[in-house]
Amino acid sequence: MNGGQSESRGRVTVLAGRLSANRWVLSCGALAIFLVTWLAGEPVWGGIAVFLVLCAATVMAPAEPMRALAGTKPALAPALDNVSALSLADAIPDPIVFFDKEGVIVHANAAAAEAFGPLRSGSPVRLTFRTPEMQDLISRVLQAGAEKEGVDFTERIPVERLFRVTAAPVGEAEGLFVFVFKDQSEARRIDRMRADFIANASHELRTPLASISGFIETLRGPARNDAKARSHFLQIMEAQTARMARLIDDLLSLSRLEMKAFSRPGGTVDVAAVLGSVVDALRPLASELEVVVEKEIDAGPLSIRGDPDELFQVFENLVENACKYGQSGKRIIVSAARSQDGVVATVRDFGPGIPREHIPRITERFYRVDAENSRAQKGTGLGLAIVKHILTRHNARLEVWSEPGEGARFSVHFAPD
Amino acid sequence: MSTHTQRAFDEELKFLTNRIAAMAGHAERMVDQAVSALVGSDNGLAEKVIGDDRLLDMAQREIDDKAISIIARRQPMADDLREVIGAIRISADLERVGDLGKNIAKRVVAATGTQQPISLFRGIEALAELALTQLKEVLDAYASRSVERIGMVRNRDDQIDAMYTSLFRELLTYMMEDPRSITSCTHLLFCAKNIERIGDHATNIAETLYYIITGEQLPVERPKEDESHKVVAGIGKASESLDR
After folding, report:
1. Do A291 and A365 fall within a single domain?
2. What CATH number corresponds to the domain at position A104?
3. How many Cα atoms occupy the beta-carbon half-sphere of A270 within 13 Å?
4. Are both A104 and A150 inside the same structural domain?
5. Residue A2: exposure state from Cβ atoms within 10 A (0-12, 13-18, ≥19)
């Protein structure tokens, strides 16, 4: 019932649409015939002729019913007609790459440029997506056209990423194809984070744990009634548990950083302000170690794109390291300045310096230049690894200079905003 | 790429580029998997890498044949000629990268036979990451034809050399402390050297690429900073400068 009703209503609408679309032609024709017959003096025949023309025009009207229907939904389709495929592609947050039947990139949307770096139109798509799976996918798509199966595209460098890629032809006869990338890195990173955390934690927590259980054994056995030894042992155990807590904190923050390694921070940060608050926060430590902190920070906001809390952590680590390991130099200089390509922030100490062979490796996890000294200073071996991760995320560069006996200089180069 | 009156010529040049892309993908994958196999002592993965090397050899021969026949039949000039010659050289470098990856994979069993300190593998991993970054950057530069990114590749080579020297020192110390580790440490030393060589091949590709794009040679390389040839095993001194 309903269907029939709406159908007949549709037909009436179409008819009305046809009539109104042809109203000028129809009225001109009717007027002309009426004039001719009226002038000839036979008005009855003229009226019949006008009626016939009207009928014929209604039945044979060439205007498509769609146009009449479009008239009832005003302005939707014409607005879409004006949207180009390019602006549509740029509005989509997933990376999309168009290529032609020769395998040459035609267009890559903004998300693709963000994910894979600038993709030049006109360069072969195979050259950018080089993994064997992608090569197969490209061959299959170019030969067979449609390709239902997606493949995984993994990249290890600079951070591990995993995309699910599907390929499909676009349009009718344009000979264009499109890759759509779905980012699956998150799930992969969670897996890896769990594995890494367990591996690192089990390895690094074993030492303090072994020493604590050793002391417990002693306290229950030979030292049961020795009050002096007991307080001494408990003190050591307290230090060891504190160390374990620090280790877990650092491992967790490192894992969290790895999770979001590829998302660049959005906010704006004033490096000068961050350095100022770091120096203020570490003043008690510096005075305890009898180190003078000098500031040489350029006036005015040195703003860069970044996350204030993470950058605070970076400079906190660097200044703290400078205080602890450069203690013998008695002073450190914290400076920041604008350079021709962004902002440079530097922490300089005048301690013993870092032997040259260690410099390339100090940002590795748990790499220690001097294990004994590091433990004595309550280091976890993760500080510079955290620094490196945060800076990678900020697209910044860490430069380390050191001469034995003259101290060390850690410079952070931020790209311009 | 400019268009030629003969479409077939364009097709042939495109064929070369596409084959190089496929080779590059295989070479990158091989190095990555070889190092993963080494770090995770995964013999199955190592076998796979060793088998994959054949693909690279075949691809290189194919590119050679095609390039020779293009030169003979089309007699290319200027940037076309550089493109063809460049393809021959880049494919040779990539084939060497694959060989080095295969060599690392072959050493997996011997190098991981005895228990090794975890920090050694971290060092090798970090070195491999540097080399792979360099390889990826130069190949991305090949795709985007951007000369600006080539300079960076050469700078990174210095980092690789410094890291290699540091690893060399560390391995030497381990061997002096515990002679039982000499076998596996020597294999690891060769693995590290292979990775360092991969970085050199990436630098070579960068230079070829610069030549293809600009028609000029990069200035002659500065003196190498790899100082492992100067490292001497001073008993006592070397071991006390290192942790653990």
Report:
1. yes
2. 3.30.450.20
3. 9
4. yes
5. exposed
Q: What confidence tens digit (pLDDT) does each residue in B148-197 have?
A: 777 777 777 888 888 899 889 888 988 898 888 888 889 999 999 999 99
Judged by CB atoms closer than 8 Å, whether chains meet at A131 and B25 is answered as yes
Contact at 8 Å (CB) between A375 and A362?
no
Cross-chain residue pair A123–B144, CB shorter than 8 Å:
yes
Strands A331-339 and A292-297 turn out to be parallel
Residue A86 lies in a domain: no
CA separation, residue A69 to residues A22, A59, A135, A346, B62 (Å) = 15, 17, 47, 69, 60
By Cβ distance, the residue of B14, B32, B244 closest to A124 is B14
Whether A337 and A356 map to the same domain: the answer is: yes
Q: Assess whether A286 and A407 both reside in one domain.
A: yes
As a whole number of angstroms, the distance between CA A147 and CA A165 comes to 11
pLDDT given at position A230: 86
Residue A403 lies in a domain: yes
User: CB distance from B32 to chain A under 8 Å?
Assistant: yes
Q: Locate B150 and state its tokens.
A: 């080539």
Single-letter code of the amino acid located at B113: G
Do A276 and A399 fall within a single domain?
yes
Taking only Cα atoms into account, the Rg of chain B, rounded to an integer number of angstroms, comes to: 20
| Nearest-by-Cβ selection for A132 from B17, B26, B166 | B26
Residues from chain A contacting residue B140 (CB–CB below 8 Å): 117, 128
**Who among A120, A355, A361 is closest to B145 (CB)?**
A120
For domain B7-240, which architecture applies?
Answer: Up-down Bundle (1.20)
Domain count, chain A: 4
Listed residues A233, A259, A285: the one ending a domain: A259
User: Which chain A residues in 208-247 lie under 8 Å from chain B, judged by CB atoms?
Assistant: none
Both tokens of A383, joined, read 């500080």
Do both A236 and A278 map to the same domain? no
A408 φ/ψ angles, rounded to the nearest 5 degrees = -135, 155
Of A48-57, A190-199, B32-41, B67-76, the one with minimum mean pLDDT is: A48-57
**Strands annotated E in B63-111:** none
Q: Is residue A89 part of a domain?
A: no
The pLDDT of residue A410 is 93
Rg (CA), chain A: 37
Domain ranges of chain B: 7-240
The ipTM, to two decimals, is 0.79
CATH number of the domain bearing residue A403: 3.30.565.10
- DSSP letter (8 states) at residue A333: E
Extract the residue ranges of chain A whose pLDDT is less than 50: 1-4, 63-73
Subunit contact B143:A369, Cβ cutoff 8 A = no
**In angstroms, what separates the C-alpha of A166 from chain B's closest C-alpha?**
19
Q: Interhelix angle for B78-106 vs B7-39, to 10°?
A: 20
Q: Which domain does A57 fall in, by range?
A: 2-80
Question: Is A361 in contact with B140 (Cβ distance < 8 A)?
Answer: no
- Residues in chain A within 8 Å Cβ distance of B198: none
Determine the residue of chain A that is closest to B162 in CA distance: A360
Q: Which residues contact B46 (CB under 8 A, 6 or more apart)?
A: B34, B37, B38, B105, B106, B108, B109
Contact B166 A365 (CB under 8 A): no
